[in-house]
Design brief:
Shape: globular
Helix content: 10-25%
Number of strands: 7
Strand content: 25-35%
Length: 72
């Protein structure tokens, strides 16, 4: 499976912020709704916690697109 690596300089990024920052969703509101509706998976499991802390190596998938967090 091909995925994009999103580099961050902090210890973590919240799931809804990752979706918006990576371009998987156009807005934070869209990210919030997608997560609440169970349309997003984290490391292969559906996640409905938009405040989920995404750390180094974590992967989020939405609309058949996956991004992986990389702390630099």
């Amino acid at each position: 499976m091909k995925f994009e690596v999103i580099e961050i300089e902090t210890e973590f990024i919240r799931l809804q912020d990752l979706l918006k920052f990576s371009g998987l969703t156009a807005t934070g509101g869209e990210a919030k709704i997608a997560v609440q509706n169970g349309e997003v998976s984290v490391n292969g499991e559906v996640c409905t916690m938009r405040g989920k802390k995404m750390r180094n190596g974590d992967k989020a998938t939405y609309n058949d697109k996956t991004v992986e967090v990389s702390v630099i």
